Here is the input.
Amino acid sequence: MLTFEPTGTHLGATVRGLDLSKPLDAATIGEILRGIGKYQLLRFPDQKLDPAQHRDFAAQFGHPPAIRGRLAIFTAPGVAEINILSNIVVDGQPTGATDAGVIWHTDMVHNPTPGFANALYALKVPRRDGKRLGGTEFYNLRAAYVDLPADIKEKLKDAYGVYTGENYTSIERTPFPEYGTNSHKAHKKEPVRHPILMTHPISGEKVLYCDPGHVDYIDGVPPGERDALLKFVLAHIMQPKFHYVYDWTEGDLMMWDNLSTVHHAVLDFGPDEHRLIWRCQIEGDKVFDPAFLARTVDAVRATA
Ligand SMILES: [Fe+2]
Here is the structure.
């Protein structure tokens, strides 16, 4: 029996009653997708997964891409879709990426169909004086949309966020250095544009879809208002009332919606405070396919 326990905040629920190492039926996939549509972030505690099982879980919700670029050297043996995030050093060699996801961003924004979700699995969580470190922080883009002033919604109704992939610290972000201070360049991406006021494919609700770390400018608004609107949108998203911190526990598989949240990793732990998390991305191919939603989400709705 699958149960959802909401966190009691604006984001997240714990899901019990599932062993994610085994294939899920369509109804269960539909229930999980409905849960993501409602809670945006789902924690599945006490899981025991190997890298192939982790990837196969993710693949039920969308294509899990092989890890590319600078992170590709840190993948699970034989499972190119599982990215190892770790500060553990063995024989002087790093065993995982230590600085992935430090800027505020959402994953796979550069895909022509925006990326759907991430599924991360925690194996080691750093602690100091009993307090868990190395959390993942979020802002809630659905709540940010709801809270947008009516005149801004009107100005943005036909607007697009443009992601050229050319740079990680575009001039539009200089007033907000905390959003874009990557020390590395992304590998070359093709320019894409996504509606700023995006309709979420599962919930049907609007989200304020804008990646603070990668957006270059807003298209579809008067040129004279472009920069001011982008600054407004970024400052609006990153308000304390939309903020949420996820503290990991070993055995957590946590799946979050990249379409309705932005996130970053908190590097508040030292080199001897070990963190080991596996990451698998989930592309948007399935959730933007109405036939897939009909087989899963709609089938559950019909029987609910
Ligand atoms: Fe990320």
